[in-house]
Amino acid sequence: MEFLSSPYFTEAGWRPSASPVPYFQGALVFMTIVYLFETYLDVRQHRKLHDKQFPKPLTEAIEGLGNYSIKKKESEEESDDTKQESESEMSLLAATQNKFDKSRAYGLDKSTFGFVSGAYNQLEATAFLLLGYLPFMWTMSGKALLSIGLDADNEIYRALMLLTLTTIRDTLVGIPFGLYSTFVVEARHGFNKQTLGLFFMDKIKSFGLFIVIGFPVTAALIYVIRWGGEYFYMYVWAFLFVFSVVMMTLYPVLIMPLFNKFTPLEEGVLR
């Protein structure tokens, strides 16, 4: 079990901790316990979604409202006038049961996909910890800086390169899961309004925002930590607080319109 005592890849000069506390093994055990507990809860919810029986208290509550009916959408109506009139309305209870069935089917698909993606994420996190993914990427970041003529000993440069490499990897790995979730699960239930081009354009925009916002913030954060001395955590808190307030103001005005289309609310009761 020696491979569980430390990562496979370590930087030059690395030495095992002299502490008797097995932090490395503890992290592995903690990750596994959290995953198993969350999976247990998800399995319980998944089993509940298989229950096709409409909740009896809800049935009684709807029936207690009286004999209400809901008109169906025009696109769902038949061309024949007689049949159109007979199928244009359904009871409130029937409409609610229909929504319940659709919601349950959507929940099952989401839950099944969640099991697959969750298992992959757990395996990936465990493998990264055992193999020493972050030390390896830190070393690769230094080599990448040297290859473009920058100082590999500069902490800010190296941290930014590390973020860039890991973000690119995470984005590429996440694309298959994102494609399946958007164009299979969501589309199957009529929730997807996105095209393939927009999907990849959003990825490009996200990476661009990461560079425009993430780079300066990361560089400033490292500078604050180095400058702050013994009480650096107080300055870091103040910096992150100010940044959060600024982002709360700018996000709905500048960032959200990049990914969503907004139209002014029409004049009426709500405006």
From TrEMBL:
Query: What residue stretches are annotated with the CAAX prenyl protease 1 N-terminal domain?
Result: 95-261
A molecular-function term among this protein's GO annotations: peptidase activity
Query: What are the entry keywords?
Result: Hydrolase, Membrane, Protease, Transmembrane, Transmembrane helix
Report any one BP term from Gene Ontology.
proteolysis
Q: Which residues cross the membrane?
A: 23-43, 156-185, 206-225, 231-254
Q: Does the keyword Thylakoid apply?
A: no
InterPro entries documented for this protein: Peptidase_M48_N
* Xref: Pfam families: Peptidase_M48_N
Q: Which domain of life is it from?
A: Eukaryota
What is the name of the protein in this document?
CAAX prenyl protease 1
